[in-house]
Amino acid sequence: YNVLSRAGVASFVGRMKTAGLSGAIVPDLPPEEAGDYLPAMERAGLDPIFIFSPSTPDERMRAIASAGRGFIYCVARKGVTGLPTAFSGELDGYLARCRAATHLPLAVGFGVQNAADVNFLRGKVDIAVVGSATLRIIDEKGPAAVGDFVRGLR
Prior knowledge:
The chain is α/β, with parallel strands linked by helices. Helix content is 47%, strand content 12%.
């Protein structure tokens, strides 16, 4: 949120709109502290996207979801991004809690790296976020390789 705050929330949101974004995740901005951000996003027609984690209580999920639009980003596990996640049935309970807390589409990220991970998530969530693995492909093979990588995830 510091980046938005320093630039001025309304100005930054305006720049996001001009750049053609549809929404944004500001990972360190909880809804109850988003007094300037939420109205600015509403005026710009942009979606404020909020985050659930495995340790988020159900009541908190519902409160977060009520302020969000676009989708909810569900962090698959605790820890840092870019490391593998062991996708297993343990994730199913968490995703059921997420689904019960919101009508918004669910996106899962944090460790989604390959077609097997995407296939595990198929039918359980609406979006698989393959961020760090995509950046790794760009670093190793260049931007032109991303298309083949993404097609391989299907």
